[in-house]
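Input (structure):
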C-alpha cells in the first residue's frame, strides 16, 4: 500500500454524515468541520426553524446540507430519522451522536421523570440510532465511523454547586457504550470513538457559565480559556476520516486541560 498524503487522509469527499443536535452549538461546529472536508451533511434536531437556519448557514459555506426534524428521546422518531436519512442520502458513513439534555437538581430531590428524560436522549437515543444506522448501512458495507459526544462531566464528580447527577451519569454511560460498541463492531470495520468536551459557551451551558462567572470557569483550565467555535473541528475530522482509521474505542477530552487538573 502506498501511503496517502495528509490531504487525502483527511478528505471526506463522497462521504455522508448524520449529526444529531446539529442545528446549533457543538453540533453545528462539527457539521462545519465535516462539510468543509467534503462530506454531505444531514442535520437533525427537534425544531425545524433552527434546522432551516443552520442548513442555510452551511449551504452558504458551500456545504451540501439537508435536514430532518426528530426528537431522539423518542424511539419512533429516532428510527424514522435513521430510515429517512438512508432513504434520502443513500448512505451514512459518519454518525455523530450529539443531541443531549441536562437537568439541574440536588440528587436527593432529583425527579425520576427528569432522570428518564436525560437518559432517554443522552444514552438510549445514542444506542437506538447507532444500531439502526449500523444495521441499515454500516454493517453491510463493513465500514463506518460513529462519534459519540460525551463530556468531561462523565469523567469526574462535579463541585457541589453543579447539581447535574443525571447528566454526569449519562455521559459516563456514553464512554462505556463507546468502548463496548467499538469492541463488538470492530469486526465490521466500524470505528466508534467519543469526544469529551469541557465548557463551551453553548446554549445548554450558557446559564451555568454565566451564573458561575466566565472568568472563574476559564481559570480552572490550565490554558485559561473556554472552548470556542473551532475547538472540536480537529478531533471530529480525525475520528471521521481515514487519518483516524486505526483509532477506536477511545475518548479524548477537549477541555483546555481541566480533566488533567481533576485527575481524569
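Output (sequence):
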Amino acid at each position: 500500500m502506498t501511503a496517502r498524503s495528509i490531504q487525502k487522509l483527511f478528505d471526506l469527499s463522497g462521504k455522508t454524515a448524520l449529526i444529531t443536535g446539529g442545528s446549533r452549538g457543538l453540533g453545528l461546529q462539527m457539521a462545519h468541520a465535516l462539510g468543509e472536508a467534503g462530506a454531505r451533511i444531514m442535520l437533525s434536531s427537534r425544531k425545524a426553524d433552527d434546522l432551516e437556519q443552520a442548513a442555510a448557514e452551511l449551504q452558504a459555506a458551500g456545504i451540501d446540507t439537508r435536514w430532518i426534524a426528530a426528537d431522539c428521546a423518542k424511539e419512533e422518531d429516532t428510527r424514522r430519522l435513521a430510515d429517512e436519512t438512508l432513504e434520502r442520502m443513500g448512505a451514512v458513513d459518519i454518525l455523530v451522536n450529539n443531541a443531549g439534555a441536562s437537568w439541574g437538581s440536588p440528587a436527593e430531590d432529583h425527579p425520576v421523570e427528569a432522570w428518564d428524560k436525560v437518559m432517554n436522549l443522552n444514552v438510549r437515543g445514542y444506542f437506538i440510532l447507532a444500531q439502526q444506522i449500523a444495521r441499515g448501512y454500516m454493517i453491510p458495507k463493513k465500514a463506518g465511523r460513529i462519534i459519540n459526544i460525551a463530556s468531561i462531566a462523565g469523567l469526574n464528580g462535579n463541585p457541589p454547586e453543579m447539581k447535574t447527577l443525571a447528566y454526569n451519569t449519562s455521559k459516563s454511560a456514553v464512554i462505556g457504550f463507546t468502548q463496548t460498541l467499538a469492541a463488538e463492531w470492530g469486526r465490521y470495520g466500524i470505528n466508534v470513538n467519543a469526544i469529551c468536551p469541557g465548557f463551551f459557551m453553548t446554549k445548554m451551558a450558557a446559564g451555568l457559565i454565566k451564573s458561575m462567572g466566565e472568568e472563574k470557569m476559564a481559570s480552572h483550565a490550565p490554558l485559561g480559556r473556554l472552548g470556542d467555535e473551532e475547538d472540536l473541528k480537529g478531533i471530529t475530522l480525525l475520528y471521521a476520516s481515514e487519518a483516524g482509521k486505526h483509532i477506536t474505542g477511545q475518548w479524548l477530552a477537549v477541555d483546555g486541560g481541566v480533566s488533567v487538573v481533576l485527575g481524569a
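Notes: The beta strands are 16-20, 40-45, 65-69, 94-97, 144-149, 190-197, 251-254. The first helix runs from residue 6 to 9.
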